[in-house]
What does this fold into?
Amino acid sequence: MRLLVAALLFACSGFAFAEDPTFELTIRDHRFTPSEITVPTGKKIKLIVKNEDATPEEFESKKLRREKVIPGKSQATILVGPLTAGEYPFVGEFHENTASGKLIAK
Amino acid sequence: MIGTAVIVFRETLEAALIVSVVLAATRGIRHRGLWIGTGVAVGLLGAVLIAAVAGAIASAFEGVGQELFNAAVLIAAVVMLGWHQLWMVEHGRELAGQLRALGDSIRSGGRTLAALAVAVALAVLREGGETVLFIQGLAATEPRIEVAAGLVIGGLGGTVVGTLLYFGLVRIPVRHFFRVTGWLIVVLAAGLAAQAARFLEQANVLPALVPQLWDTSGVLSESSVPGQMLHVLIGYTAQPSLLQFVFYGATLATLIGVGYWRVTAPSAPRVARTA
It folds into this structure.
């Protein structure tokens, strides 16, 4: 049974992530910078979210079906796509009033 | 402090519900308290260790190591629960007989207790690991005493609700008891499998297939306490994807199907031991 789990993890490591378009998002003073990012459709996308604040933030997007807590002064990677054309809003769940933005896929 | 208490309450509640169901389902098996208790202790220790290497895990596999780790932990727990359930299909009637006679707890079930101890340890590890990371983050900016108070209040609250569930379950009449707890284990496992599917989606390893089959967050939100309890106990999800639905259904079908096969196959041992 453990072998099955190990095999699953090993299989995942073989995926070629290196070629995916990569975009950066920064959290500063509980805001996302930039608040809008344009990304290509039909491709897997790598989103690197850097949290420059001292407190953690939770990146959440219902439309992208992603949520991830990013500790203070660190970064996290979120993989999405392939996406169809459209807008994909996201928020910082811990500071929803100020932290929001969207991915625009075209 | 309130913020810490709420977070710790929710995480503790999830683990406590799983521990309660497992404790109820193993009622009558000798030493099961020791096994389950050890599972909890190992899980707590593991949670602290995991939190220490959380950064390394998270950045593994191109940044989705945490999601893959969670998925692996959940799938391992599903396998452990399934293994116990298969054993119970054959021995449940014995256990019920023993309980009814108020006799000694039966001696068998050692290996399945190990599997359940692992399942419990994994649950505590997952919830505990998240809690430790939250606490570390909060302790960086909030006064330590407030974080500690929130930790204690939240932890106690979650444990109390889990205990209430256990005492509620053991009031079920013996003739129905193992059938009910058996079903609880099966849907618990299916729910964990659906959670694993969600993490595999988040890691972008498996596609959602259909992103959202329905949205019942207006009816019952997963962030409400009853919603969260149903989430843990039966795998309720307000906005499930097709992938999650498939994992849920496949786990249900496998556990139920293999159970029937074990009981009806010609070579299956007949449960004939009398009290």
Observations:
- The mean pLDDT of chain B is 87.
- The first helix of chain B runs from residue 2 to 25.
- The radius of gyration of chain B is 19 Å.
- Chain B is about 75% helix and 0% strand.
